[in-house]
C-alpha cells in the first residue's frame, strides 16, 4: 500500500464512514478515518488466519483473562503492518501531525497492571507467531479509573473510553449467549438440570490483533452484558420510565466496571458474576465452534488449549464439566478428565489476600450446580490422595487457587523464583501429589510495542547495527555484544537516550510546567502503588538524600530526578497515604533553593500504558525494589532493561533472571533474599533496630513525624510512621541501609559517563530473552501442545 492509497482510503472513510468533510473534520474524525483505513488492511490477514486454522483443523489457544491492558491500538497496527512511512506521508499530505493524531486515541485500560498488560503482550505475540488463538475477556464500559491529584491526594474519576467511537471492534450480533444465575437444580428424566432464575445476554465484540508484518491476526473477543429483552413497554406506557429501563440497567451492571484491583476480591457477588459471565460465555463459544467443525467431544483437548489467567476464570473447571456432563451426557469422570486436558492455569501471586476464595453460601445461591460439581470434583480428587490433606473448600469457602490447580493439567508460575515458591508454599501439598504439574514460564514483553514503537531512536540504532530481524527474534540483540566496546556505537547509544530524555523534559515542561535537567539521572518507579512494591522505601531514601545534600550543599552530588507514577486501589488507604506523602515531599523538595539543582521529585498522574511508553525510553535507572518473595515476576522491569535502564532492585521475581542475563556488574542489587525476609520477620522489633542503627533512616522518619512535609497538619503521616516503625511487614526499614548504599553505587556509576553508557547498552543487548515471543513458545511446548501455522 502506498501513501497515496492510504490517503485515498482515509478520505474515503472520512466521507463515507464518518459523513464528515475534510474542511470541517476534527482531530477525532481524522484519527477514526485513519484507524478505519488501517483496519481495512488487517482484515485480510484476519480472514487468512481463520481460514488457515479451519483448513488445518488446528488446535486453538484460548486465553481467558479478566483483564487486557491494551493501551492504544492504532500505532501498534501501523507498526506491525509496516505502514509507518506511508502513514506519516499520508497524514503530512493532509496537513496533519502524525504524532498528534496517534495520541488522540484514548487508552483501552481494561486492566489494572502487570497481569492485564501481560495478556495484551501475549495476544500480540500469539499473532506474531501465527498461533491460532482467541483472547476472551470483558468489554468493560469503564476501564481503570482516571487518577488526578487534589492537594496531593489521589482522586478517582470514571474512565470514559467508550464515549468515543471505538474504531477497532466489530459487534457480532450473531454471537450471543444467554447466561444464567441463581435458581435451582432438579432431576429431570435421569438428568441433572440447572434452571437459573436471572439471565443476561453475553454479546460478543471482536477486535483483530495483528502480528508482526501483518502475517496473522487473532481475535480478542470481549463480552458485553445486555438484557434479554429490551425495555418494559407496558411500564413505559404507564409512565413508569425509570422502572421500564430497570432490566436493562441491571443487566449492563455486569460489564459496567473493571474492579480497580487485581489482588483482592471485592464487591463479592458482582465480581463473581463477572467471572462466571465471561468464562461461561467463552466456554459456550469454544464448544459451539468445536461442534460446528464436527469435533467429537472426547477430542476436545486435542483442539482446545484453554489458559486461565489467574483464578478469575477458575469457574471454567466446573462449568466445562457441567457443559460436558449435564448438557452433553459425558460420564462425570470422563468429563473431569476431558476438562482437565483442556485447562491450564497461571498463578500470578502468592499473597494470601489475593488468592480468591468464595463463600460456599454465595456460590450455592448464585451457581448452585457449580457448587455441587465442585463437591464432586473435590471428592474425586480426594479419592486419589492417600493423606486426603487437600480440600477445595475450607471454613465455608471455596478455594479458587486449589480448584484451578486440580482442574488444570499444567499450572505455571511467572518467574523461576515465583515457581519455586509456589512449590514450597501455597501449593506445597498439591505439588507433592502432582509433581509434574507445576511448570515455570517466565513472563515477557512484546518488543514491537516496548522497543520498536516506544523507542524509535534506539530501534533505529539497533537496526543499523544488526538489521531489523531483532523485532521478531529478540535474542538477536546479543549480536550487539561486539559493539559494546565500540565508542562510536556507545556514543550513538548515549545520544539516543539523551534525546529521549530531552523529549521527556520538554513534555514535562509543556504539560505540567516542570523543569528538569536532561543530564540529571532519571530515576523511575512506575507501577501500581502497593506496600510490597515499596514506593515508601524510595521516598524515604529521597528524604534522606535531601537532608544529606542540605547538610553539604557543596558536595559532589549526582543530580537526580525521581519520577513516580502509579495508581492506588481506591479502597487501599495506606497506598493512598503513600501517594500523598510523595506529593507532599515533592512540593517541599522542589521548592528548596539549596538542593534544587541536585534533586527533583515528580509524581505524574494517571499512569497508563501510553505514559509507560513515554517514560521507559527516557529512564536511566529502573526501581524494582519489592520485598523479596512478593513480586511474582514484574514485566516493567524487563521493559526498562530492554530500553537501557539498569535496575536497582532486590532478588525478587524476574529481577533474578534479569540480573543473571545482563550481568551482576550491570545491576544494582541490594536487600534481603526471600529466605532472609522470612527470618528477619521473626526478629522482635526488627524495624526499631534498623531505625536505631541508621541515622539517615531515623532522620528521614523524624522529618515526616515533625510535619516538615505537612506543615499545616503535623501529624498527617502518624499512621505511616507508626506502621514503618512498628510491624513493618514489608521490611522497609530493614532494607533501607542496603538500598541507600546501592543508590550511592548507582550515583558513582552514573558519574562515570562512559561506564554508564556501556552498562545501559549491556542491558539492551542482553535482554533479548525477555520477549513475550519466547514466553509464548514456552507455553506452546510445555503447556498447550500447539504448533504455529504457515499462513
Ligand atoms: O502479575 C501480577 C501483577 N500485579 O498484575 N499479579 N497479579 N495478580 C504480579 O504481581 C506481577 O509480579 C506479575 O508480573 C504480573 C504478571 O504476571
Ligand atoms: N501498568 C502498566 C501501565 C504497565 O505498562 C506495566 C508494565 O509495563 C505494569 C503496570 C506492570 O508493571 P510492574 O511489572 O512494574 O508491576
CATH topology category name of the domain at 517-764: Rossmann fold
Number of DSSP strands? 24
Contiguous low-pLDDT stretches (5 residues minimum) are none
- By DSSP (H or I, 4+ residues per run), the number of helices equals 32
Please estimate the helix content: 40-55%
The average pLDDT value, as a whole number, equals: 96
Q: Strand portion, in percent? A: 15-25%
CATH class membership of the domain at 517-764: Alpha Beta
Provide the spatial order of strands within the biggest beta sheet: 7-10-11-4-1-12-13-17-18
CATH superfamily of the domain at 517-764: Glycogen Phosphorylase B
Radius of gyration: 27 Å
The class by helix and strand makeup works out as alpha/beta
Q: What is the terminal separation in angstroms?
A: 20 Å
Which CATH architecture of the domain at 517-764?
3-Layer(aba) Sandwich
Could you say which small molecules are bound to this protein? C-(1-azido-alpha-D-glucopyranosyl) formamide, pyridoxal-5'-phosphate
The main pleated sheet reads as: 9 strands, mixed
Shape, per Cα inertia axes: globular
Amino acid at each position: 500500500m502506498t501513501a497515496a492509497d492510504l490517503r485515498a482510503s482515509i478520505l474515503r472513510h472520512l466521507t463515507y464512514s464518518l459523513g464528515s468533510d475534510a474542511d470541517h473534520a476534527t482531530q477525532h474524525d481524522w484519527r477514526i478515518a485513519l484507524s478505519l483505513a488501517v483496519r481495512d488492511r488487517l482484515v485480510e490477514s484476519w480472514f487468512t488466519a481463520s481460514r488457515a486454522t479451519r483448513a488445518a483443523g488446528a488446535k486453538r489457544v484460548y486465553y481467558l483473562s479478566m483483564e487486557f491492558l491494551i493501551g492504544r491500538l492504532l500505532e501498534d497496527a501501523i507498526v506491525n503492518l509496516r505502514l509507518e512511512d506511508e502513514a506519516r506521508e499520508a497524514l503530512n499530505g493532509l496537513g496533519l501531525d502524525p504524532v498528534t493524531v496517534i495520541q488522540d486515541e484514548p487508552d483501552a485500560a481494561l486492566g489494572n497492571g502487570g497481569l492485564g498488560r501481560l495478556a495484551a503482550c501475549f495476544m500480540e505475540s500469539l499473532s506474531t507467531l501465527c498461533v491460532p488463538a482467541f483472547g476472551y475477556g470483558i468489554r468493560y464500559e469503564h476501564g481503570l479509573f482516571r487518577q488526578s491529584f487534589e492537594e496531593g491526594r489521589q482522586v478517582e474519576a470514571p474512565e470514559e473510553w467508550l464515549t468515543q467511537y471505538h474504531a477497532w471492534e466489530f459487534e457480532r450480533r450473531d454471537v450471543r449467549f444467554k447466561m444464567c444465575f441463581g435458581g435451582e437444580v432438579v432431576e429431570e428424566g435421569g438428568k441433572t438440570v440447572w434452571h437459573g432464575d436471572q439471565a443476561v445476554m453475553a454479546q460478543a465484540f471482536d477486535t483483530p490483533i495483528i502480528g508482526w508484518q501483518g502475517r496473522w491476526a487473532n481475535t480478542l473477543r470481549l463480552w458485553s452484558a445486555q438484557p434479554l429483552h429490551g425495555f418494559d413497554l407496558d411500564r413505559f406506557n404507564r409512565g413508569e420510565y425509570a422502572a421500564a429501563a430497570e432490566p436493562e440497567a441491571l443487566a449492563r451492571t455486569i460489564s459496567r466496571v473493571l474492579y480497580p484491583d487485581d489482588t483482592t476480591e471485592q464487591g463479592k457477588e458482582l465480581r463473581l458474576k463477572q467471572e462466571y459471565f465471561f468464562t461461561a460465555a467463552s466456554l459456550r463459544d469454544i464448544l459451539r465452534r468445536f461442534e460446528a467443525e464436527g469435533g467429537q467431544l472426547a477430542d476436545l483437548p486435542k483442539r482446545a488449549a484453554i489458559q486461565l489467567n489467574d483464578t478469575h476464570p477458575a469457574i471454567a473447571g466446573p462449568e466445562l464439566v457441567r457443559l460436558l456432563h449435564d448438557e452433553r451426557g459425558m460420564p462425570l469422570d470422563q468429563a473431569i478428565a476431558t476438562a482437565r486436558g483442556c485447562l491450564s492455569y497461571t498463578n500470578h501471586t502468592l499473597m494470601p489476600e489475593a488468592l480468591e476464595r468464595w463463600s460456599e453460601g454465595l456460590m450455592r445461591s448464585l451457581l448452585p450446580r457449580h457448587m455441587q460439581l465442585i463437591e464432586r470434583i473435590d471428592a474425586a480428587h480426594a479419592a486419589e490422595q492417600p493423606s486426603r490433606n487437600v480440600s477445595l473448600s475450607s471454613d465455608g469457602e471455596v478455594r479458587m487457587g486449589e480448584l484451578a490447580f486440580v482442574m488444570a493439567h499444567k499450572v505455571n508460575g511467572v518467574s523461576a523464583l515465583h515457581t519455586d515458591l509456589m512449590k514450597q508454599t501455597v501449593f506445597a501439598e498439591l505439588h507433592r501429589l502432582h509433581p509434574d504439574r507445576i511448570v515455570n514460564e517466565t513472563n515477557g514483553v512484546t518488543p514491537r510495542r516496548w522497543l520498536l514503537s516506544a523507542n524509535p531512536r534506539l530501534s533505529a540504532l539497533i537496526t543499523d547495527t544488526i538489521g531489523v530481524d531483532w523485532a521478531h527474534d529478540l535474542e538477536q540483540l546479543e549480536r550487539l555484544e561486539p559493539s559494546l566496546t565500540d565508542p562510536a556505537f556507545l556514543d550513538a547509544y548515549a545520544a539516543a537516550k539523551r534525546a529521549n530524555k530531552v523529549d521527556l523534559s520538554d513534555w514535562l515542561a509543556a504539560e505540567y510546567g516542570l523543569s528538569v535537567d536532561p543530564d540529571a539521572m532519571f530515576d523511575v518507579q512506575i507501577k501500581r502503588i502497593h506496600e510490597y512494591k515499596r514506593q515508601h522505601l524510595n521516598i524515604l531514601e529521597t528524604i534522606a538524600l535531601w537532608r544529606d545534600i542540605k547538610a553539604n550543599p557543596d558536595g559532589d552530588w549526582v543530580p537526580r530526578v525521581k519520577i513516580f507514577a502509579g495508581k492506588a486501589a481506591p479502597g487501599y488507604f495506606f497506598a493512598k497515604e503513600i501517594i500523598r506523602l510523595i506529593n507532599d515531599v515533592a512540593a517541599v523538595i522542589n521548592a528548596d533553593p539549596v538542593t534544587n539543582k541536585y534533586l527533583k521529585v515528580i509524581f505524574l498522574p494517571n499512569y497508563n500504558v501510553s505514559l509507560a511508553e513515554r517514560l521507559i525510553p527516557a529512564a536511566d535507572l529502573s526501581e524494582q525494589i519489592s520485598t523479596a518473595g512478593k513480586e511474582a515476576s514484574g514485566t516493567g522491569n524487563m521493559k526498562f532493561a530492554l530500553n537501557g535502564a539498569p535496575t536497582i532492585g532486590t532478588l525478587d521475581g524476574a529481577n533474578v533472571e534479569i540480573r543473571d542475563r545482563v550481568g551482576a556488574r550491570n545491576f544494582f542489587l541490594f536487600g534481603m533474599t526471600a529466605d532472609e525476609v522470612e527470618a528477619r520477620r521473626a526478629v522482635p522489633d526488627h524495624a526499631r533496630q534498623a531505625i536505631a542503627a541508621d541515622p539517615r533512616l531515623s532522620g528521614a522518619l523524624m522529618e515526616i513525624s515533625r510535619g516538615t512535609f505537612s506543615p499545616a497538619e503535623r501529624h498527617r503521616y502518624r499512621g505511616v510512621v507508626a506502621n514503618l516503625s512498628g510491624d513493618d511487614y514489608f521490611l522497609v526499614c530493614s532494607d533501607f541501609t542496603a538500598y541507600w548504599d546501592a543508590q550511592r553505587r548507582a550515583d558513582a556509576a552514573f558519574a562515570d559517563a562512559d561506564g554508564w553508557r556501556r552498562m545501559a547498552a549491556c542491558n539492551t543487548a542482553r535482554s533479548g530473552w525477555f520477549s513475550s515471543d519466547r514466553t509464548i513458545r514456552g507455553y506452546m511446548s510445555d503447556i498447550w501442545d500447539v504448533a504455529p501455522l504457515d499462513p
